[in-house]
Every structure is written in C-alpha cells, then in structure tokens.
Amino acid sequence: MSDIPLVLPFADDRCRDVNLSGGKGASLASMTHNGLPVPPGFVITSAAFADAVDAEALIRHIQNEDLEAARQVVSQTQTPRELIKGLYDQLPPGSVAVRSSACAEDGDDASYAGQQETYLFVDDFDTVMTRVVDCWLSFFSERALFYRLHKGSLDDIAMAVVVQRMVDATKAGVMFTVDPVTGRRDRIVVEAAYGVGEHVVSGEVTPDYYSLDRKGAIKRSRIVDQQVMSEPELAQLVELGLHLAELNGSPQDIEWAFDDTGLYMLQSRPVTTV
Known about the structure:
alpha+beta, 11 strands
C-alpha cells in the first residue's frame, strides 16, 4: 500500500475520497475545495491504519466478540508519526481537534454520528498522537460495533482520523437544510448555543431553536435564555447551508461555529431522517 497516501491535507484533491478520508474528512476536503470557510487541517487516512494494523487478527477477534483482544491489537498499531508531524507543523499555532472519521459514516442512510470519539483543545503533538490511537480505538467500542452490526458490516475496519485547527467558538451548533422532523423543504432548522458545538451535538446543553425560510427569515423560534443568534448571522448560515445542499445534491446536516473572526463550517453530511 506504499503508493497510497497515509496523510493528506484538506487541500489535496485526493482527500475528497471517502474511502481514504472517511465521511468527515472527505466532507471537510470537499468544502475546502469549494471555497467554504473551513478551519485548516489534514487527514490520517484509512491507509495509515490498514498499513499498520494486524487486520486478520483484528477481524478474528471482532467475529469472536472478544473486544478486549481487538482493542489490544488496535492499541499496538503504529502511527506514521513523522508524516503526521510534517503536516501538524504547517497548521497555524493553537489547539487542534482530533476527530474520528470512519469510511462508512455520513452516508445517505446512516450518519454514524456520535459513534466514535472527538477530542477538542489538544495542545501538543504528543497528545495528538495519543488521541489518534484513541480515535482508532473508539471505532471498536461496544457501542460502535453494535451500531455497525445493524447498519453495515463488522468486517469493515476502514478508519481515518481528522486533525484540524480548533475554532475558539463564541457560538456554535447544527443546521438542517430541511426540517428533519416534518420533512418540509421550505424550512431550515438551526440549533445554537454559546461555546463549542459539541455541547449541542452531544445534548449537553439545551440550544436555541430557529425555524427559518429559505431567505433566512425567522418563522418560529424557541429561546432558552438570551437569544444566541442575530438575524444577519442566521441569514449567513442559511445562505451557506443551501449552497452546501446544492453542491451535495441532497439536504444537509451541518455543524458550524462562529468565532471572533466569522463563520466556519465544521462538518456536512446528508440528513438521514427524511
């Protein structure tokens, strides 16, 4: 597999291959390619894991439902440290997020959202390397394997990892370019809270809720305390969200964040509930 890249920056066109970069990584690379505001980063490709892991032993342990042995195999897998260091050193200074990116995730019928781990505000390279292995391990947790058993194949071990500059978010959340409950395509739904978006995605906080038309006008809202989003911010979100839906040819479930400099797109995947 020596001719297959083990690490790829988002700007490399090969990074848009979901089989190399996983759903999350390929989405970030595609958004970067299309000029959308994406924090810089790179992908440790599925080839890096496949090249180093004892795949035969790993699959055997999974099929025998011996998760402890499977995770032991993963924990002993070597990362391409020097290649990762080369791209890590090219990122702007500051913390990074280390995010799992399974090759089966973010499809039209299964998002795999929340099944693997994300680590935020990682401050040094040695911890990045530890978190890369932790992301690999999360693909073989009991929860993740149970999900794959019902959505795909347990023999699927293709796993990439995203390393991306952290957004020091003042507000963040999710946006659906179609109402995910009613299926109305003339409505955009935004959920927003102060701070990083993981709090919204994980359900740790109760976010503000906005139902908007396709021009960004608020049609219905539920404000928890002080309104998080201004009308211009909502209009900007809707414009970029609809652009992403058009680029992908389907309604999108989008993670986003604002910092002091503006809006960033952190992930985009198909809405699987309509």
